[in-house]
């Protein structure tokens, strides 16, 4: 039987937390592993846990990756899916890190890491917060559309055009989309596609 005190401490920092945060809050490694072993905690990824009583949190994979890589940004297919600009359910979380940063290897949830230029990394990068403490960073709608279009050799032409088409049907800010396209050097193909889809 696990004492209630460690679980109470974890509720104060959870429902999703890193093992280092738990230890800093006063939970011993032994109690942390024991809570995991009796099913009070779910190990989402190496060193990232969730209180089992809160298992229905939205965007759990994105929150988990965000906890593992606080400087990372959800991008490409995963960002399009989050913003409902694609029907695809990505089999991996697409995560960007800036040039020069550590490129993490994350097995669970399956994650594909991309390196984006440090000069423009923060362009269109926003924070999504669930509850009080669950959060992750993601490219906003405009940056997501531009990224999949400029990297369509990785994600596919069909997904790039679908993302742009759906964006233009729902609350588009064409001026901002064009500005981000220019800053990221999305190229003539991006401008031509935008013009055609606006006609």
Mean pLDDT score, rounded?
86
Number of strands: 8
Return the structural class: alpha+beta
Low-confidence stretches are none
Largest sheet, if any? 3 strands, antiparallel
Oligomer: single chain
How far apart the termini lie comes to: 67 Å
- Rounded to an integer in angstroms, the radius of gyration calculated over CA atoms is 19 Å
**What is the topology, as strand order, of the major beta sheet?**
1-3-2
Q: Helicity range of the residues?
A: 40-55%
Counting H and I runs of at least 4 residues, what is the number of helices?
A: 10
Give the SSE order as H and E letters: HEHHEEHEHEEEEHHHHH
Basic shape: elongated
Proportion of β residues?
A: 15-25%
Question: Can you describe this structure?
Answer:
- The chain has 199 residues and is of the alpha+beta class.
- Helix content is 45%, strand content 19%.
- It has ten helices and eight strands.
- The mean pLDDT is 86.
List keywords for this structure.
199 residues; three-stranded mixed sheet; 10 helices; three-stranded antiparallel sheet; elongated; alpha+beta
In a few lines, what is going on in this structure?
This protein has 199 residues and is of the alpha+beta class.
